[in-house]
Amino acid sequence: MAINLEIPKKLEQLVEQAHMVAAEVLRPISRKYDLAEHEYPKELDMLAAMIDGLDEGGASSGAGAAGVSRASGNGDGGNRNGSNLASVLTIIEMCWGDVGLLLSMPRQGLGNSAIAAVADDEQKERFAGKWAAMAITEPEAGSDSAAIRTTAVLDGDDYVLNGEKIYVTAGERADLVVVWASLDPEQGRAAIKSFVVERSNPGLKLDRLEHKLGIRASDTAAFILDDCRVPKKNLLGDAEIDTKKSFAGAMRTFDNTRPLVAAMAVGLTRASIERTTELLADAGVTVDPDVPAGRQSAAAAELLAMEADYEAARLLTMEAAWMADNGKPNSLHASYAKAKAGRTCVDVALRCVALTGAAGLGEDELLEKWARDAKILDIFEGTQNIQLLIIARQLLGLTSAELK
Amino acid sequence: MNLAEQGTSVGLRALSRLASSDLLDRVGLREVTERLVHRGTRNGFRAANAAGRRFASAQKLAGPARQKRGKRPDLFDLEPSDEQKMMIEAFGDFAATKLRPVAQQADADCAAPADVLDQSAELGIAVLGVPEELGGAVEERSAVTSALITEALAGGDMGLGFAALAPAAVSTALGLWGDADQQATYLPAFSGEDVPAAALAVQEPGVLFDPFDLDTTARADGDGFVIDGLKSLVPRAADAELFVVAAAVDDDGPALFIVEAGSEGLAVQPEPAIGLRAATTARLRLDAVRVPAGARLGDGDSYRDCIRLGRIAWSAMTLGTAQGALDFLIPYVNERKAFGEPISHRQAVAFNMSDLAIEIEGTRLATYRAASLADQGRDFSRAAAVARRLAATYGMKVGSDAVGLLGGHGYVKEYPVERWYRDLRAAGVIEGGLLV
Questions:
Q1: Which of B72, B76, B81 has its CB closest to that of A5?
Q2: If I label A257, which of A70, B208, B279, B359 is the partner at 20 to 30 A Cα–Cα?
Q3: What is the chain A residue with the closest CA to B386?
Q4: pLDDT tens profile A351-374
Q5: Superfamily name and number for B3-48+75-194
Q6: How far apart are CA B125 and CA B133, in angstroms?
Q7: If we measure between CA atoms, which residue out of B417, B411, B402, B389 comes closest to residue B355?
């Protein structure tokens, strides 16, 4: 067929629905839960039930955290617009509504994506319908996830986990927490495995909830794992320590989830640009895309520049998802999307605040909130610098020993 | 879809034309021995009378011929068609083996070698936008295909790409907007053996130039128009036999006019610039040039499309050159050693490379999207502006950073990088000259 970068017809309705939900459900409570940090957004329960219904009815086109497993090549060689593309498009709309609330959406956690990506069929069935958070970061290991110190020791039919995990999104509210731990810290990254831990497990102790710059509607938990016993069958993936591929398997989750986080950034970027465009229009500034920027007001030229970067970020995100749908290796492009969308959303959100003056700073508008929410999107699921590192290694064909 | 169906929908004729050309066999075999010297004098305008032929309508057309519009695709798709892939490969080979090796000299000479221009014409560049019944090669209108070819050629050299593509801008304009008489008079020449040099002249020398607010005017006078004005950075103007010129019509906004070389009052003056020198850019002065009423090409809507399609073309040019620069930089930073190891092992260098790769890919997608929207007959004004803005910003960044990454090597002409630095300045400035 032909090169086409528009939202496919078959997903138009889904995108429209997501946008309506964002406008009618998320936006009206956006400020409320920004002010009431740590309060559970009960409005989301109804919404989550509705999304489950859509999933069962097939109307969601597989969109959502659990829908982003990779296509294993496509037999007919035809072009696919599948669950990865559906997911990024709906997340863009939802995060146009509110990023923090999207992150609090029951059963749409990053742990759900991890389970979808690496769990076997039995596990998938056992964990179906559960809300799964993801626990990777530790006080001494953030971006360097191979350096995590949490240990998992086999004892009979259980693994016993010990360690400390921080920055667990939706950690308090989720049903499950996917915990990264090492079978043998001496063996480095190859020994790192992920374990599904029931939130009710007495060995998984909630230490605190963070107070944050933004995305306050989403709770960010810190846990202590204290002789936390997890059934052997809850280990995701291969239990063997294979120095060749184990860690790569764990990292593969990110190829699927980075486009989702990029999509969050794209949605927030659009929200900021749209509102700023409206406020500037009230002030008499409109953009004419045909007229050279130098002939328009500085504010209009800035809008045009922001829109260009927004569009690049949006298309890179769609590209990464489309590649996953079609079984094309997308690690490089997932990082393109995450890097571009992350930095664009911070840049744009801050510039929008600056462009709109007191309106941008004040709490009457959501612009200041978006400027605070934005920064996390350039940090979690791989910081800007980590994305640049991943891209450079692939682009230049360098190992992690050569390019540190 | 079987081969025959594919052929009718996407233009098997274009491919067979490529395949039947013995040029491909000769690529790499024929030495480029001839170079043109910069033939314009630098002191003053001279008459633009490179009229090698008389344009006359050989056949009477019942109505204008148009390439078919593709139907709107259902799915998001970044995969070029098989035909597009073959064209990318063919034009990419041509760019790498015929353009890149002579680019440095052409830049110094301010002229493209004649055989390079002949060969590019032989590849059918100028007939991509020509309807089939008038000798064109592609049944279906495809700005995307043109963008892909533009990108591929610019990967060899931007200045030579500009020179090679200049006639295609005129033939594409005639194919898209020409009436029956205009098409019958001018288009056959572009599908013949001897493709005329031709140029689409929009740019003007004024600071803050806006193509929708032209200084060049076309005044209705009797049964025609009188055009006055000055056009800037017109490619191959001294050799051009035909121009399409943008001028503001009294109270009717900007429009396009067909102006033949040799018209009374038409003069050319060389205008070498920082980059794109191989395209022998020049100023074109129109001093009370009289054209018949039938010289007006298209209407206000087509003028807007012309400007937008030109911007997409320049984004594609930028893209090709920027990708060529990135492809050059990768082995360079991996091989160049400092402090005992390749400079690519340093994050300051490696992360800069990552930034360039990200922005080039973003610009690529935005460019393809704008071209694809144009093919679908949908509003592409904003998409074209976005593509242009990205190309302007990041094209310049690629040029500047590339020199920086090479350091002193980037500043000397032993390497192509200083030329890219200069050529990529054009990306966000030039209007017209090209169309996809």
A1: B76
A2: B359
A3: A308
A4: 999 999 999 999 999 999 999 999
A5: Acyl-CoA dehydrogenase/oxidase, N-terminal domain (1.10.540.10)
A6: 17
A7: B402
